[in-house]
Amino acid sequence: MKVVTPKEMAVMDRHAVAAGTPSIELMERAGHACAEVIKVDLDEKAQIIILCGPGNNGGDGLVIGRSLIEDGYTVHLFLTADREKLSEDSQISLKRLEDKNIPIRTLQDDADLEDLSLIMKRATHVVDAIFGTGLVDKEIPASYNRIFDLVNDFDREKIAIDIPSGLRGDIGLTIGNGIFADKTIVIQNYKTGCLLNDGPDYTGDTILIDIGIDENSIPNEKYYTQESDLKFPQKRKKNTHKYDYGSVVVIAGSKGMSGAGILSIEGALKSGGGLVTCYVPQDIYIPVVARAPAEALIKTYDCNITSDDIKHDRKKVILIGPGIGRAKNYSFILEHLLEGSLPVVIDADGIHHLAVVVDSLKESKTPVVITPHFAEFSKLIDVPREDILKDPIGYGQKFAMEYQVVVVLKGYRTMIFGTNGEIWFNSTGNPGMATGGSGDVLAGMIAGIAGQNVNLFEAARAGVFYHGKAGDYYAEHFGQSTLTAHSIIESLKYVLK
Ligand SMILES: NC(=O)C1=CN([C@@H]2O[C@H](COP(=O)(O)OP(=O)(O)OC[C@H]3O[C@@H](n4cnc5c(N)ncnc54)[C@H](O)[C@@H]3O)[C@@H](O)[C@H]2O)[C@@H](O)CC1
Ligand SMILES: [K+]
């Protein structure tokens, strides 16, 4: 399923209209489909306030109102703009309401706002159909901000249509303040703004509705990962042995951070890696051997280790970085590994050291994936974090294509950038997973999956998905507070089958 920017959504809308579906029909479909979702939670005592803005998002709200009223629900409809300012389709929707003698008020002055706030005291639901994907990046008038504040103070169900008002549909940042919805009914496709930055905090739970718009009228570029999209796990042959499933090398750990390698080893083993060898510095060899899973081999290395040293013994993929620290210079090792022919996963402090030799990525012939969070990515590409947040898709895509490296940009909805420009938004995971060691497990999983003859891009998509799904499994059963990196490892067996 594609993820779209508001501009792309507008292109898809126009194509649907050109292909023969009038835009008012699309509005009817959107409004009725939203009403069906809303009705699921309503009982006969429900009182629903619907706030309708000047554009087609407001028009959706008007259709929702008509649908709910026809079904006998108590609805209070408000326009936030003068009738003359409504879009063409909204004017039609308004007329359809008025033809049925359904009253609708306009919020014009303080007295109207006072009325709204009184009705809110007895209402059970507020529907936000003020602004949708047509919100433009300019200051929103103060009168709107007062409405947003009233809605945010409402302590019962707040439902946004398509995207919460005030939230930018492209980058998930607000213009001034915005409406914090409990639930957002997303029309046709996820907008990038639902998934980026503050988007998930404003949208709350999301429910996608289909109004029959074809997503093939825009280029194939951004997708939302579904489990059925993944090419992993693959069915295992019967005539097989452990070297068919991995032989992963993990270069990890340093004094004070010996646990990082262990978490990566476990991530690799629990995602099906057949054999894991962990190279650690001499000074942490004993504690790592004492705590590592019995299935893993632990070796020591020096700073001259190369991909060729590792390659004999049928190794298939190298992970470097978890817990290696910044004290020693790893850039030399990284250069060696990038000159070799084994795929390389670079994580955590490995990315810090990569910054020094970043151009070796361009010369490297071997597949590489890096797994930075935003701060690490900002240092690597030398662009302030705030600038990246305003255009994470652009920066991630540019780097992945220019340096021919798969980029896993970690966040609530991690993005995986392919070297061909493709972007996959992950659909699993929860804030409880923002915990120490979670990234070490993920890096281990990506390497573990890549070792099973899965290409690095696919391994990154699958690793991120199942890492998140394992975290979601734990959170569903035990909550987010006690979730640790080990909870992810332990939950993998329930979600990766
Ligand atoms: N064919 C279509 O285009 C469809 C559109 N749909 C709905 O229409 C929405 C998009 O409709 P529109 O493009 O009309 O846009 P919106 O309804 O999101 O907003 C546009 C209106 O808001 C005003 N506005 C924009 N930015 C502002 C700002 N910063 N401060 C104050 N006012 C501002 C504009 O002047 C305009 O009146 C979608 O989110 C969706 O809900 C659906 O009905 C399905 C079909
Ligand atoms: K809205």
From TrEMBL:
(6S)-NADPHX binds at residues 56-60, 144, 162, 260, 323, 373, 440. Keywords: ATP-binding, Isomerase, Lyase, Metal-binding, Multifunctional enzyme, NAD, NADP, Nucleotide-binding, Potassium. Its cofactor is Mg(2+); K(+). AMP binds at residues 410-414, 439. Its EC number is 4.2.1.136, 5.1.99.6. Pfam families: Carb_kinase, YjeF_N. Homotetramer. This is Bifunctional NAD(P)H-hydrate repair enzyme. It comes from Acetobacterium wieringae. The lineage of its organism: Bacteria, Bacillati, Bacillota, Clostridia, Eubacteriales. The gene is nnrE.
